[in-house]
Amino acid sequence: MELNNQPQPEVYSDKILDKTEGEGIDFVKQQHQIQIEDPDSWQNEEANHNFILASADALINWSRASSVWPVNAGLACCAFEMISTASSRFDISRFGMEIFRPSPRQADLLIVNGTLTWKMAPQLKRIYEQMAEPKYVIAMGSCAISGGLFRNSYAVVPGVNKIIPVDVYIPGCPPRPEALLYGIQMLHKKIKKQKNFEKRKSA
Amino acid sequence: MTVELQAAEIAAKLEAALPGCTIESSGNTIVIKDEFVLKAATFLKNTAGLDFNYLNFLTATDYQTYFEVIYDLVSLEHNHKLVLKVKLNNREKPELASVTGVWKGADFQEREIFDLFGINFTGHPNLKRIFLWEGFQGYPLRKDFKQ
Amino acid sequence: MPTVTHNILPTVLNTGILAPDWPAGFWSHMIIFVVILFLFVIFMAMGFIYFERRVISRFQIRIGPNRVGPFGLFQPVADVIKILIKEDIVPLNADKLIHLLAPVAAIVPAIMVFAVIPFQNGAALANLNIGILYIVAISSVSVVGMVMAGWGSNNKYALVSAMRVIAQVVSYEIPLALAIIGVILFAGTLSMNGIVLAQKIPYILLQPLGFLIYFLGSMAEINRTPFDLLEAEGEIVAGYNIEYSGFKFALFYLTEYTEAIAVSTIITTLYLSGWRGPFDSLPVLPVIWFLIKVFAVFALIIWVRATLPRLRIDQVMGFAWKCLLPLALINLLITGAQVVFWPNVSQWVFVGVNIVLAGLLIILFSRFFRTTGDKIEA
Amino acid sequence: MALKTETFLVNAGPQHPSTHGVFRMRFILDGEVIQDVEPVFGYLHRGIEKLAEGLTYSQDMVFTDRLDYLASMTNNQAYAVAVEKLAGIQVPERAEYLRVIMAELMRISSHLMGVGFLTNDIGAFLTPLLYMYREREKILDLFDMVCGQRLTYNYMRIGGVSQDIPEEFLPALKKFIDTLPRFIQEYEQLLATNEILLVRTKNVGILTKEAAINYSTAGPVLRASGVKWDIRKAEPYSVYSRFNFEIPTGSKGDVYDRYRIKIEEMKQSIGIIKQAMEQLPQGEIQAKIPKVLRPPKGEAYGRIEGPKGELGFYLVSDGATNPYRLHIRPPSLLNLTPLRELVIGVKIADAMAIFGSIDICMGEVDR
User: Fold this and answer.
1) Alpha-carbon distance C310 to D348, whole Å?
2) Do A96 and C241 touch (CB under 8 A)?
3) Which end of chain D has fewer surrounding CB within 10 Å, N or C?
4) Where exactly are the structural domains of chain C?
5) Would you call C245 and A59 a contact, using CB atoms and an 8 Å cutoff?
6) CB pairs under 8 A between B and D
7) Count of C–D CB contacts within 8 Å?
8) Is A77 in CB contact (< 8 Å) with chain D?
9) Smallest CA–CA distance from D116 into chain C, residue
10) C190: burial class by Cβ within 10 Å (0-12, 13-18, 19+)?
11) More confident residue, C2 or C366
């Protein structure tokens, strides 16, 4: 009987990358402990209407609301309800939303579908920052809203709104496709209220 | 139907090959001394009639005073199984020989135990955190872990 | 159409600003036709986008865009407005000049192809007597834009995509050009309009093998499934345009569809007898025939896209060099022999002969590449 | 002239269209060819094993739904089997039959998704996936009918199931089961006779029998390599010993075999469901168990054959209401172990096909 003690083949492993990633995660964890306010609270205020600008707004908002392209990003369980929504039965393409862009640069909507862990948080933040304005975020499912079932865990972000601002929250674990469609229509309504020619207070 | 081997018989065989390695045996479980893990694993895998070629799973438990590492072994040919256990009393710096040379399936599982329990597997080709990130404080599955 | 432009606008344009020795009719023809072509390309691209999204939806048992406007017809309009006013991002470490120029370099050659396409008898921007040569020369220049995009974006996925596309397009140029020679041999002219006029029988019947080679080759040239390695979503995310957003991405998106339109129109002209059809002496009918055929070809492209998976890069290259190139050479040999040795035999004889030969050759060649699935034990 | 060449590092993931969630692979590429790969996990690590220690046995059931979210029912079953083994609970027969029906439906659904996403990774533009989604929706409707949920069911409880099936369930199930073979036939025609799919899958990512065993792979991956190993036969749990079914095995262990195994297993599952429907007895659906379960001190390992392989729960009890330790044997994680060996030396496109054929679910890999 001989011991199997031959040296293993060298495994590729990039410890420097891991270290920088870990530092980044710790940094994000420190920075993002407070909930980010809704940057769109200005929508509730009554603005004075300018006739010409209003019709230009209407055109722009119509085009933005009619072609919201989501990022092709799935986190966890809710991702499958998102795919269900895109599939034949619920058919998100009716609203012109079937173009799931794999590159965040070309997308308008980030659907955070599932539990967000601290390890994933910098990546999600990066995806959000890579998206071009105007961009919208839907928090889908209880995990994305508040951490849900896993709120007490050592690895889970309690609510995605600590990392990025959220436009629409959809409750459920997971939300049914109908709920997601309803949330998307809420987002459409929100987009159609935008004033593109006024300075935002928070900006 | 999977046969659960009588641990006492296997323990006798193990004892014959590696004197002084077993601590106790009951049911389908053998507890061995931690320095014999690699030798015992190789013996169990390569001995005809035992042929434990399949490491079903590998995990650990924290019993406050000591760690227990559990090897669930199965032979796909004979369809029998055996549980091998090791107790680690050193809580500060637990160490155990890696069995990746015997069963490659142990690779990720040993990394997982390292990540969540802080047990160091000597001889593992790439022992580093697998689920948590570098710089995470503490080992979550230990009972004394505080968030 | 040229007659209209020759009569109405010469006085308006003959103001002396233009080169004095060039006739005003020439300028008015040019300007009007360029405007028409641009509108044609943009509206056709939008139409194609709508058409493709609806048709693919039907293939996938879905409905497709139907909320924006009647039947969702305004969907592409909304897309265009949205994407044009979207923020334009230039990555920090990108090669700024190349990053900026790449979309322009991609779209200009794609639109230039339309200069020689005859929409009806003689109605082309420039009825060049070497039209087909011009197309072969210009159609693959778009690739330069894509390579620039891949290089200038400072993104590894984009770089891999650029390397893939250049290898692929260079390989497929050869069988493509060889397939066209078959058409030229039968037509006896290089002019696009001449080729249409020469098609008593549509050349798809006379040149079935050449048509297949050209169709597959051009699918590879415009990077459509199963040769869409350039944008292989599952592998290299979005390919060369991964770092583009806003207006520049819109140009790439437009390029993709402009190329698809270009290929559809070229196939229509070369193999489906272009604007010809019943009653093609009536005023507008030839254009309608032309558009119908273009959409039919595009529907075929969509069909392939909705059905087939993607090939691997070495398989794509192998297919070009080991399968299409020999087939194109054989096709050229057969066509040459028919034209030289039997110039007086009715072309209907060649139709039968060529279809049979094409079938035999395809069966023979597919033998070399065939993989069969075997059952597994149950 | 010698050209200087360089390898370069490419990150695939965590947000990448074909990583099936938040998996990340660091590729070292030499042009198109992969020189080395380092898988990076943990982007969905929620610490379920730790959280489970803080809740009671029956509360922990909800976590199992979120493990392999494509096969929640089988996760439920595995956990229930483990707890019942620990506490010595006898499950009523009708409940066992219902469990078998649900588990086999879940297996069909999971395999449909596995095949669908594989074709998507190979490059088919969504079409096969959406056709398979059509069948999956029918299965989800059946589950919806039984327990009112589409994805996370929490249907199987310790000692039985949460509620009896409604009246209209069996006719609906029968209708579905009768039409399913026709659709599977359709998919087979669409896929198995497609030259491009064959070229892309045959002889790609071959995993030998010895390697498959040594790497502790399980389920379709192990069987595709030619090992006839299925917990339903090897150690029949529930009422599987009463059914007549076969274990399909592959011969080569390539991507094509892994795909074929899934198709064949779906056919076998249909057979099992048919037999279970015929034999379904009347009676109780829930054993009498105390409200708060206190299993005796000890440990137990309960395992079942999940769609992705052997799914086991290792439980340690110290006599209290909460489990002292809960460990999950995740087939997805263990099936990923040979990934590095399979992927080195192939092109990126093949790497994605291999990854797709292993058919993992990140919820289970990271836990």
Assistant:
1) 13
2) no
3) N
4) 8-377
5) no
6) 77
7) 114
8) yes
9) C309
10) middle
11) C366
pLDDT digits 0-9 by tens, D306-358: 888 888 899 888 888 888 988 998 888 888 888 888 888 888 888 888 888 88
pLDDT band at D129 (very low <50, low <70, confident <90, very high): confident
Residue C12, pLDDT > 60, answer no
Cα distance between residue C14 and residue C6, in whole Å = 12
Residues in chain A within 8 Å Cβ distance of B131: 119, 155
Residue D315: phi and psi, rounded to 5, are: -120, 135
The phi-psi region of residue D282 (left if phi > 0; otherwise alpha if psi is between -120 and 50; otherwise beta) is beta
pLDDT digits (tens, 9 = 90+) for C200-236: 888 888 888 888 899 988 888 888 878 887 777 767 7
CA–CA separation, C156 vs C163, rounded Å?
Answer: 11
Nearest CA in chain D to C164: D32
Give the closest residue to D349 by CA, choosing from C361, C227, A49, A109: C227
For residue D333, which of D302, D359, D304, D307 has the smallest C-alpha distance? D359
> Do the strands A136-140 and A168-170 form a parallel or antiparallel pair, or are they unpaired?
parallel
Secondary structure class of D8 (helix, strand, coil): strand
Chain A: give the shortest CA distance to residue D94, in Å. 29
- Subunit contact A132:C57, Cβ cutoff 8 A: no
> pLDDT tens for residues B14-27?
777 777 777 787 87
* ipTM for the complex shown: 0.84
Q: State mean pLDDT over A137-154.
A: 86
- Whether the CB of D137 is below 8 Å from some CB of chain C: the reply is no
Quote the minimal CA–CA distance from A75 to chain B in Å.
15
List pLDDT tens digits, range D22-34: 888 888 888 788 8
Instruction: Please write the tens of the pLDDT for every residue from D217-227.
Output: 888 888 888 88
Element (H, E) at D215: none
Mean pLDDT, to the nearest integer, of C241-252?
86
Looking at the complex, does the CB of residue B102 fall below 8 Å from at least one CB of chain A? yes
pTM: 0.86
Section D38-45 average pLDDT: 86
Q: Which two three-digit tokens encode residue A104?
A: 């965040």
Cis before D14? omega within 30? yes
Q: Which residue has the higher pLDDT, C165 or D5?
A: C165
Q: Hey, is the C-beta of A166 within 8 angstroms of any chain D C-beta?
A: no
User: Which of C61, C74, C82 is the best substitution to test chain A (most A C-beta atoms within 10 A)?
Assistant: C82
Contacts of A60 in chain C (CB under 8 A): 81, 85
Q: C252 with C222: CB under 8 angstroms?
A: no
Q: How far is D133 from chain A (nearest CA, A)?
A: 7
Q: Are C353 and D178 in contact (CB under 8 A)?
A: no
Helix (H, G, I), strand (E, B) or coil at D81: helix
pLDDT tens track for D142-196 = 888 888 888 888 888 888 888 888 888 889 988 998 988 888 888 887 777 777 8
Q: For C366, which residue in chain D has the nearest alpha carbon?
A: D195
> What pLDDT does A47 receive?
56
Six-digit token string for C302: 């969509």
- Determine contact, residues C116/C131, Cβ cutoff 8 Å: yes
Q: Is the dihedral of CA C45, C47, C49, C52 positive or negative?
A: negative
- Sorted by sequence, the CB contacts under 8 Å of residue A84 that are 6+ apart come out as A90, A177, D133, D137, D140, D150
pLDDT score at C369: 64
| C245/A105 CB distance under 8 A | yes
Touching D: B residues 17-46, CB under 8 Å: none
Determine which of B76-90, C10-24, D38-52, D345-359 has the lowest per-residue pLDDT on average: C10-24
Work out whether the CA dihedral C327, C332, C337, C342 comes out positive or negative: positive
Q: Which of A60, A61, A94 to mutate to test the interface with C (most CBs of C within 10 A)?
A: A94
